[in-house]
Amino acid sequence: MRVLLVDDEEELVSTLAERLAMRGITASWVTGYRAALDIVEHEPFDIALLDVRLPEMNGLELKRLLEVKRPGMKFIFLTGHGSEEDFNACSAESGRDYYLIKPVQIEVLMAKLNEIFQQ
Amino acid sequence: MMFFKRYKPRFLDYNDQASGLYKSLFNFRLLWKQSIAITLAVALLPLLVLAVIDYNISKQAIESELLLRTARLVSNARRTLTSYLDERKFALNFLILDNTYDQLFDEQRLKQLLENLKSGLGEWSELGVIDHNGIQRNYAGPYQLKGANYSEQAWYKKLSYTDPDTYHDNIAMRSNISDVLLGFRNTPHLVISVLHSNPIGLDWLHYILRASLDIDRLSEILAQLEVSGDGDAFLINHQGTIQTPSRHYGGVLEKSPLTVPAFSERTQVIEESDHLGHKVIIGYAYITGTPFILMVVKQKQNLMKAWYDTGAKIFIFLIGSILVIVAVVFGISTYLVNSIYQADQKRVATLHQVEYANKMASIGRLSAGVAHEINNPLAIINEKAGLIKDLFTFRQEYAADSRLIGLVDSIINSVERCATITRQLLNFARNIQVSVQKVNLQQIVHDVLEFQAKEAGYRSITIVVDIPDEIPEFVSDRGKLQQIFINLVNNAFAAMQDGGKLEISSRINRDNQTLVITVSDNGCGIPQENIEKIFEPFFTTKSGSGGTGLGLSITYGLVKEIGGIIDIKSAVGTGTTFVIALPLEHYAKKGETDARLTG
């Protein structure tokens, strides 16, 4: 399972990537939408974990762009905000179960990743 | 007093202490007084002025009509009396001219003449002839008056004067009518004398025919006059002695209590008071060639009676109208001012509600912002601590050091606790913004109580929630429901002592249409007199301690907005129970099925 982590908080994504790696998941991380689009050009990913609030472009738009480049890619949204609009929009994009609010426990995240990967 | 207290409009006691936006736009008491005063003045003044003017004008018209009628009556009666007396005078004049000196001095002839007079003109009782010395030389009648001397009597002197230039050249000068007197027969009569004048100047051809005339006929003429208003018609002489019977002022030859009216050639009508102090209208006329004054006396009181009756009716009608106008003006003014008062209260309440809603929205935004800002660093702490733990777990280097693992675990647990709080905040904020959605009552009550759990713990308040699982999810405004529960729970907490008990229960009504929710506490309760006012805006018993009196009025408004009704039962010392009935289908009926059903 190859996972792409996109979040502007480098401290967060780098640590998360390391922890996922410890659990046998190949995780790459980027901190902006350009880098994300870039890396997707070169490497395939099964799942992308996107922050809803990204600088310059929000997670939803990024998701659509990534989908074009890599059809069949799955997405989980991660947010620190949890406003109603975000929730509604993200639920509509990827299902309400794949909308997680920070901070998220690693066990929960692992479960979600496995669940979505099985589909 | 009780009645007045009960129905006294509330705006009368309204004392506005607010300022700025929340201040009332009007001084209701003043407004009420002014509108009543102005409306009453505009309505009543013209009415009263018209009534007074109309009263005076019609009274004057009726009075002058009365005077006119009296004058007409008097002048007609005068004409009748004058012609009656003239007729008698002319008859005697005819006799004295038609008979020779010898014939008149013949006793038989005189008797015959008396009989003739009686047969034609009635009422005559005696006839006498008086010579130029004033001695009655011939007499026909019931008494022996032959030889009586009249030379010293005023009427004789008046008739027998002998000025050659103006010598008795008309009947008026040659005749005399006496006052009424009783005479030997003791019956009232008057005496008519006619002079045989002789311009040549022979004394013995200067003689007088004298006749007595009973006044019955005269009385009859006067009695037949139709004098309205319990009136009286009679004759008096110039000295005020009554000459024909009167109804109210005495019998014949008595002194009249009325003053003798001043001389006038024409018929006159005057108003004065009689001897009893009654207002009377007196019509009088001096009858020319006689000592008589015709008096027609009417009681003004009686004449005006019809007018007074009408006046009384008008007065009653006027009073009635005034009462009705006053009542209507009071009613309408009170109603209108009350409407304005209510509208103004509604305006102020709406302002407060808007402010409250804004406040809630601000709190929502603030808490969402805070939660978001905290969540990010929290996530980092979470991951870093997690990584440390992972390192221990996966690399085995520090696995033996249980103390470090414990520290990391405690960090992770604390992060989890923080995360719970921020999630609750986010949840709260989200629900304030949310409109209609499918809601789960259990969930809402749980969310609300979560915020109060700490305080309940400190104060040892027991919270019992009895919401059966059968209660279906229903479509409603989650945010409003949440606020309703927050307000009611806050209210209950404020009413209870430490160690109180709050119960929240719900059931589906038998009709399967309504959800009944009960929130009850065993706090201090609300006195009966306050219960009616409890949902009114600005009603508060906590005014000293910062209560705005809006909590329950806003709750009431919120319940109404989501289609429900709220009721209260309370007893002082036992506690208070709020019962909310919510229709399960309210929003479905309103066709708001397009609402975001996101749960």
List the defining traits of the structure above.
heterodimer; A: 119 residues; alpha/beta; Rossmann fold; 49% helix; globular; B: 599 residues; five-stranded antiparallel β-sheet; 15 helices; 16 strands; 50% helix; disordered C terminus
Give an overview of the whole structure.
The complex is a heterodimer of chains A (119) and B (599). Chain A has helices spanning 10-22, 33-42, 59-69, 84-94, 106-118; strands at 2-6, 26-30, 47-51, 74-79, 99-101. Chain A is α/β, with parallel strands linked by helices. In chain A, helix 2 (33-42) runs parallel beside helix 3 (59-69). Chain A is globular, with a radius of gyration of 13 Å. In chain B, the strands form four sheets. In chain B, strands 2-1-5-4-3 form a five-stranded antiparallel β-sheet. A five-stranded mixed β-sheet of chain B has the order 11-13-14-16-15, with helices on one face. Chain B is rod-shaped, with a radius of gyration of 59 Å. Chain B has 599 residues and is α+β, with helices and mostly antiparallel strands. Mean pLDDT of chain B is 83; it is low at 591-599. Chain B is built from 15 helices and 16 strands. In chain B, 50% of the residues lie in helices and 17% in strands. In chain B, a hairpin with a 3-residue loop joins strand 15 and strand 16 (575-583). The relative contact order of chain B is 0.07. Chains A and B meet through helix 1 and helix 4 of A and helix 9 and helix 10 of B.
